[in-house]
Amino acid sequence: MLYIDSAERDELAPLLETGLFAGVTTNPLILRKAGLGADGLPALLDWLRARGVSRFFAQATGETREEVRASATRILDLGEDVVVKLVATRVGLSVAREVTERGREVLVTAVYHPTQAVLAEAAGARAVAPYVGRAGDAGRDGVELVRSIIAVAPRTRVLAASIRSVDQLTEVMRAGAHEVTVSTQIAQALFDDELTARAADEFETIANA
User: Fold this and answer.
1) What is the CATH number of domain 2-207?
2) First vs last C-alpha separation in the chain
3) Domain locations along the chain
4) Model confidence pLDDT, tens digit, residues 76-111
5) What are phi and psi of 26, to 5 degrees?
C-alpha cells in the first residue's frame, strides 16, 4: 500500500482524488511545515475524511512515559481510523506495549536498526517505519535495513519511510517492504514517465487522425 507523507492540503488534494493512496502519514515536522500543531489534527483529519481517507497516522510526543502516554491517548481519541506513531525509544516502545494491550494499532517509527523492529514486535506493534533515506544519509544502507527487519521480525509489517526517489521506492519494495509512505513530490513523480507520456501522445494522435 502507498501512503502520502504530508499535511499540505493543496498538495494532498489532487493526489487523494486519484483514489490510489491508502492514507496519510504525518509527524511533528510535517505538521509544523504545514503550519499545524497537535491541536490542528482534528480539523486536518476531518478534511482528509471528507476526501475518502480512511487511515491516518499521527505521532505521539513527549519526553517522559507519562507525557508520551497522554499524547498517544489524545491521538487515539480522534477515532478508530487513526494509528498512533511511537518513536523506537525505550519510552516509546513501552507506551507502544500499553497501546497494543488496549487493542489499538501502533506504528513504531524512526527505526534505524533491525533490533528495534524486534522490540517493536515484542510490543505488539503492527508495523515499523524504517527511515530509508535518512539511514543512507548517515552512512547506513537503508534498503538492506528493510531486508534485515523482515528477516528478524517476520510478524511485523514494514512501512518504509524517508524515501528519496521513485527508484528508491522500487528498491525498498523489491527488498520486501509491505507499505511505503512518500512525499507529495515523489507521489506526483510516480505518474510521470517520459516514455509513457510519449506513448500516450502517440495513441491520442492516432485516435484523432
Assistant:
1) 3.20.20.70
2) 39
3) 2-207
4) 999 999 999 999 999 999 999 999 999 999 999 999
5) -140, 170
